[in-house]
Design a protein that fits this description.
- By secondary structure, this protein is an alpha/beta fold.
- The protein folds into two domains: 3-68; 91-282, Rossmann fold (3-Layer(aba) Sandwich).
- The chain is built from eleven helices and nine strands.
- A hairpin with a 2-residue loop joins strand 1 (78-81) and strand 2 (84-87).
């Protein structure tokens, strides 16, 4: 059997497993490239070649994992964020493209000589935000917190991998409990999924990603209720607090923030015109 034939069969198996047709071709190809340790151009050249003797067994294991709806990022162990490579395991959420809006907004807010000297990232997970911001603001010190030590181990490896390990202080703790320093910029992509929505989630998320990093009470707002009061004493005058929110949560989160004295400066929407990023400042 040729490599092309084997990949075509894998695509059919993934379709039969209920994976979206638009994803199956790419998934089957990426898994093949993972086994062969080659890039896309090299794979295309080899599609008419007979498959290597050990390919079927190794490839089949990966295809079966994907057919059981395990996310691709966990299977290959990596996901790109902000153009940087990040290790991902089942201890951390898979970085999403919409979270890059936080980095974009930080760069808009802090330009030129206005760069932040201290950044705090609450609920760091894989460390994607802390690492990306440390890369962009090369003189900043970063404190990154997470309640999961397993997640912090992944985040530390990602910081080292991307050359910023010496400038990020990873701390195990709930939200900002272990932070006494004050920052110019605080960011957070906290758990914000409503527990009542669990049954309707796709299997890739519901059955594989860590629930501790997903769910935040029946309405998904529990973390925000604790985060805004605790951030009050951690932000320097003139600083900004940027958070990611779930679908249709922007109004509720802004109201929670207002009760703790925060003012919503502006918002950012993702490519589907969904408000995902809220930028807050402290009222004087």
């Amino acid at each position: 059997m040729t490599l092309g034939d084997r990949i075509a069969r894998a695509r059919e198996a993934l379709e039969a497993a209920g994976i979206w047709d638009r994803d199956t071709g790419l998934d089957a190809e990426v898994l093949a490239r993972t086994v062969l340790a080659c890039d896309r151009a090299s794979l295309i050249v080899r599609l008419r070649d007979e498959e290597p003797a050990d390919f079927e067994a190794s490839y089949g294991l990966l295809v079966n994992r994907r057919a059981r709806r395990e996310p691709m990022a966990y299977i290959i162990g990596e996901r790109e964020f902000w153009g940087l490579p990040f290790e991902v395991t089942r201890a951390v959420l898979i970085p999403r493209p919409e979270t890059e809006l936080i980095v974009e907004e930080a760069l808009e807010l802090f330009q030129g000589n206005n760069a932040p000297g201290m950044i705090i990232d609450a609920c760091t997970g894989s460390g994607c935000l802390a690492v990306a911001l440390a890369v962009e603001f090369e003189h900043a010190q970063v404190i990154a917190t997470d309640i999961s030590e397993a997640a912090l181990r992944v985040a530390r490896r990602n910081a080292v991998r991307n050359g910023v390990g010496a400038r990020i202080d990873f701390r195990e703790g709930d939200l900002l409990d272990r932070v006494t320093e004050r920052a110019d910029l605080i960011v957070s992509n906290p758990p914000y999924v409503a527990s009542r929505d669990e049954a309707g989630m796709v299997p890739e998320v519901r059955e594989h990603e860590p629930h501790i990093a997903l769910f935040a009470g029946d309405d998904g707002l529990d973390m925000f209720r604790r985060l805004f009061p605790s951030a009050d004493t951690r932000l320097r005058p003139g600083g900004a607090f940027i958070v990611e929110v779930g679908y249709d949560q922007d109004g509720a989160v802004a109201a929670i923030a207002a009760r703790s004295g925060w003012r919503l400066s502006h918002v950012r929407q993702d490519l589907q015109a969904i408000t995902r990023t809220l930028i807050f400042v402290r009222e004087p």
